């Protein structure tokens, strides 16, 4: 029987006076790949940020591996085994690729070794000594994901990792997600690129105006194409 790794109930979140999330409910099983779909401004990134405690006020419930996290600061959420890869990547330009990789602390046992990471991302091994500014957009994205794999996180929140990247790099990122799933990682994706996300996700949640308006499984994808066209224009 699969274990529920993440459950969100009645989640409301604010940025200052702006009420952005309005009662979000979702659940993610251990080992699943789940994708949040929606237009820009629908609340997908805010949901990710709320999980790790990076929004303003939050109300509701966020249970990670059974532990309530709604009032925890970001560093304590991380210690529950959560790795967040934001859209802006946060690569340090003055550090080499390997120095960037070594920056985050281990938050749990079982993090990938440098050798395992280089096996998964051979490009990073080749560019280990290159400054962050010299890495391509795709290499920076791989490095941003690789950093959280080293920490021991098992729940990975990946925000728009395919955005603006060449198709060949997007294909490599898809292979990476399949490999992580095979290794038992749990992945929550925010993606604008539906063609990238569609074959990877086990389940989908569609967001609109800070709420979940629809959820469906991979096997129900064809049945929901008309709805996706309406909400996403895909």
Structure description:
Strands 6-7-8-3-9-10 form a 6-stranded mixed β-sheet, with helices on both faces. It has a 4-stranded antiparallel β-sheet with strand order 2-1-4-5, with helices on one face. With 234 residues, it is of the alpha/beta class. Helix 7 links the parallel strand 7 (155-159) and strand 8 (186-190). The protein has one domain: 3-Layer(aba) Sandwich (Rossmann fold). The chain is built from 9 helices and 10 strands.
Structural key phrases:
Rossmann fold; six-stranded mixed β-sheet; single chain; globular; alpha/beta; 234 residues
CATH topology: Rossmann fold
Can you tell me the overall shape? Answer: globular
The spatial strand order of the largest sheet comes to 6-7-8-3-9-10
What Rg do the Cα atoms give?
Answer: 17 Å
CATH architecture: 3-Layer(aba) Sandwich
Counting DSSP H or I runs of 4 or more residues, the number of helices is 9
The biggest beta sheet, please? 6 strands, mixed
Order of helices and strands: EEEHEEHEHHHHEHEHEEH
What is the CATH H-level superfamily? Answer: P-loop containing nucleotide triphosphate hydrolases
Number of domains: 1
Strands, count: 10
